[in-house]
Amino acid sequence: MKGGEQKSLNVLIADDDPSDVFIVSRGLSEFSHKCNLFDAKDGEQLLMMLGIDPSTGRPSTPNPKLPKLDLILIDLFMPKIYGLQVLKMIKRDRRYQQTPCVIMSTNLSDYDRSQAEGMGAAGAIQKPATLSDFRAAIRSVEFSLIFNLDPEPIQSSQNHRLS
């Protein structure tokens, strides 16, 4: 981090593809901070972890093991609930209005990007097919602004499954 601070970053990713979660985990681990990655297999599980009722969008009790999040990554095309609908519910909840959310998709159109940003997403990125693609995406303006980081090798990284 800039200024010599060390801060552990808490990132929640919702993606139904384990290989994409792995790529994101490895890509995030390239920054000079500890990154705790929490994952959900679909939008419904993500909302339940955050304490948002998936059927109504109303606040409920979040998973007590989930820390304050620095970033939420949302796959656009997930089972059960479409990524933009998940984003909309998250941004309606006062607890997460200031939490940066980024939409990811293998097939990201300009329309999808515009919709996501109009709903309050901090950005939308083309889902990388490889680790080197994700390295390039994570160094993009969106991630640099979200994390306020200098890209340096990481000291440690952890993945967490809360369910």
Automatic annotation (TrEMBL):
Task: Tell me the Gene Ontology biological-process terms attached to this UniProt entry.
Answer: phosphorelay signal transduction system
- Which residues does the UniProt record annotate as the domain Response regulatory? 10-142
Q: Does the keyword Cell cycle apply?
A: no
Is-annotated flag, keyword DNA repair?
no
Q: Name one Pfam family in it.
A: Response_reg
Assigned keywords, A-Z:
Phosphoprotein
Modification 4-aspartylphosphate occurs at: D75
What's this protein's name? CheY-like chemotaxis protein
Source species taxonomy: Bacteria, Pseudomonadati, Pseudomonadota, Gammaproteobacteria, Litorivivens
